[in-house]
Protein: palmitoyl-CoA hydrolase
Amino acid sequence: MKFTLLSYIVINLLIVTQSYKPVFLIHGIMTGSVCMDLIKARIEEKHPGTMVFNTDRFGGWSSLENMWYQAQQIGSDLINITQLYPEGIHLLGYSQGALLSRTILQAFPEHNVKNFISLSGPQAGQYGTDFLHLIFPDLALKSAFELFYSRVGQHTSVGNYWNDPYHQTLYKEYSQYLPYVNNEIKSNRSEEFKKGITKLNKMILIGGPDDNVITPWESSQFGYYGENNTVVNLIDRDIYKNDLIGLKTLDDAGRLKIITVPGVDHFMWHLNISIVDNFILPYLD
Ligand SMILES: *[C@@H]1O[C@H](CO)[C@@H](O)[C@H](O)[C@H]1NC(C)=O
Ligand SMILES: *[C@@H]1O[C@H](CO)[C@@H](O)[C@H](O)[C@H]1NC(C)=O
Ligand SMILES: *[C@@H]1O[C@H](CO)[C@@H](O)[C@H](O)[C@H]1NC(C)=O
Ligand SMILES: *[C@@H]1O[C@H](CO)[C@@H](O)[C@H](O)[C@H]1NC(C)=O
Structure:
C-alpha cells in the first residue's frame, strides 16, 4: 500500500516535471500568426502536450504600428497567460516579432519567461535597402531618416528601430523606442528594462549571413554598424561592454547562446524544419 502510494506520487511528479512549458509565439512584420504555423505544428508534434500560443494581434498592415503600443498589447496577453503557468513559459519571436518579444520582457519585468528565442530579429536596429523596400518601395535609403526621425515617422514600428549609422544624433533625438529599450539613453525605466532580461534562464539569438533582409545581419545578435560602415560585433559594443541591458550578465553566466546559421534567407527561418529541430526545440523544455 505504502509502496503503491509512493509510486503513484513519484509517477505524478515525473509527469509534472516532464511536461513541457507553454510557448508563446510572435510573428513578423506584414504577416500574421499564420507565418508561425509551421513552428507551432512542429513543437506540438515533437513535444506532445505543449500549449502553444500564437498571437494573432497586429497582423498585416497593423504590424506597422508603434512598437511600444504593440508590446503593451501583446505583453498584456502574455502576462495573463503566465499567471496560469507559475512554473514559467518560453517566448519565441521571428523578425520584428523577435524585437517585440524582447521589448515585452523589458516592459513587463514581472514576467516568468524562462527561455527567449530571437529568430532573426533586428535587435540592434535596421538600416538597409532590402528591408526598407519591402514596406516603402519608393523611399531612398539615404533619405529614409528624414521620414523616420520625425514625429510622424515615430508612429511606425520601422521608424522606431530605424538606426541610421550616418545620423546618430538625429536617431537619439527623435527615436522614441530603440535607444530607450537598449538603454543607450537612460530613463526612469532603465533598471526595469535590464531586470526583465537578466532574469531569463537563457537568451538564444539566431541569425545568419545569408539573411538578406536584416541589415546588417549581425543585428540579429546585437551587432551593428560602427564607424565607417564596418560592423562591430556584440562583445565590442557598449550595450555589451557596459552591460546596459544585461547581455553581459547573461553571457558571463553561460545563459546567452549565439547561433549563426549560414544558407538561410530571411523568409525561410520560420519555414525550415531543420532550424526548428536543431536550434529551437532544444531550448523548449
Ligand atoms: C487579463 O485577465 C484579466 C483578468 O482575468 C482580464 O480582465 C483582462 O481583460 C485580460 N487581459 C487580456 C489582454 O486578455
Ligand atoms: C517615468 O517618468 C514619467 C514621466 O516623466 C512618468 O509618467 C512615469 O510614471 C515614470 N515611471 C516610473 C517607473 O517611474
Ligand atoms: C574611420 O575612418 C577614419 C578616416 O578614414 C579613420 O581615421 C578612423 O580610424 C576609422 N575608424 C575606424 C573605426 O575604422
Ligand atoms: C535550412 O536550415 C539549414 C540549417 O539547419 C540550412 O543548412 C539550410 O540551408 C536551410 N534551408 C533553407 C531552404 O533555408
Observations:
- The mean pLDDT is 94.
- The chain has one domain: 2-283.
- The pocket of 2-acetamido-2-deoxy-beta-D-glucopyranose (ligand 1) is lined by residues 76-77, 80 (CB under 6 Å).
- The longest strand covers residues 113-119.
